[in-house]
């Protein structure tokens, strides 16, 4: 057990580093999350570990930090599930489904193909779960980061921004479902693997039984304590069934009643705790990464990972958008947006490392890929969606009476505008 003063000091260092590098990321027009993830890497063996060794983050302090990080991750995944609203795709289901399919299937296929070649070297936990996990890791899109990017740029008021956000929501759901399958395959050899068979029953009960109960709870004077009990019970159930606790938190968020005022109040109550504990999660992930130890052969693998990740996402997203009727410039905007990975990727990689699906070396390379692809989003957007064109689209959205979100923490999708019809000039950014 570490001295309590050292634990508190480490939390101070983590929060200060996350705040400082997060502000630096915003200063250079990047999402704050890039700086916060970078802070975790800097505090690990990549930099601070080389300078101070284990003096600042000794082995004894890691378990309590991991516990704090796990609690933060449960709260974060709950909010992610809570903000995935089926109304995102209402009226534009064909376009959103097409974009999500293209932006998922191509990188998934490329990733699985490359993983077959990597398997003899890295697949210690079994070839099939490794291949599936690797495919998921290069095909994910960060819905929370994308929502923030759209809100910061005012693009949630445009139809093309709504389509990209809805597609990211669908991609996220598919990614977490496939990740659950990969984790289940890796756990299936244990003597308690029968618990996996209860997962479909658990999901069905959450939507059929728990969801109606939560609708009643939404009218309670103080629902938060009861919701937290249900949240951590759901996380425990998912962990007991060997599909990882993040899925329990995600599903519990997904079955929350879609009362906008209720969700806003709940998010406001949870935000301070998430802001405290998510940087700890980034730090814990960074403490396992030593980028200075990457060998020349691994840099070659990193190059291939970047190539298939970027080409798969951008190429698949662009082609699917064009086939769905989105004009060229609008398709480029969608492709740029779905290439962002950020937080979703970090969560997926952390689960993979914890479950033994990947080792530390491959984890480090995939982490670098997540940072680079997320950092690319801003410059690609500036190129594909110039500020003057964005202003024109915002003016058009205002004239059409598009509803704006009440809270910048949740970018909502316009309710008006064309849906499954061919998309017109307000999306192509000519």
Automatic annotation (TrEMBL):
Family matches, as Pfam families: Na_H_Exchanger
Main location: membrane
Species whose genome carries this gene: Streptomyces sp. R35
Example of a GO cellular component annotation carried by this entry: membrane
GO terms, biological process: proton transmembrane transport
UniProt keyword annotation of Ion transport present: yes
Domain (Cation/H+ exchanger transmembrane): residue spans on this chain: 21-382
InterPro entries: Cation/H_exchanger_TM, CPA2_transporter, Na+/solute_symporter_sf
Annotated protein name in UniProt: Cation:proton antiporter
Key words, A-Z: Ion transport, Membrane, Transmembrane, Transmembrane helix, Transport
Membrane-spanning ranges: 6-28, 33-53, 65-84, 96-118, 130-151, 163-188, 194-214, 226-253, 273-292, 299-321, 362-381
MF terms in GO: antiporter activity
Region Disordered: start-end pairs: 396-430
Gene3D superfamilies named in the record: 1.20.1530.20
UniProt-annotated location(s): Membrane
Domain of life: Bacteria
Topological category with respect to the lipid bilayer: Multi-pass membrane protein
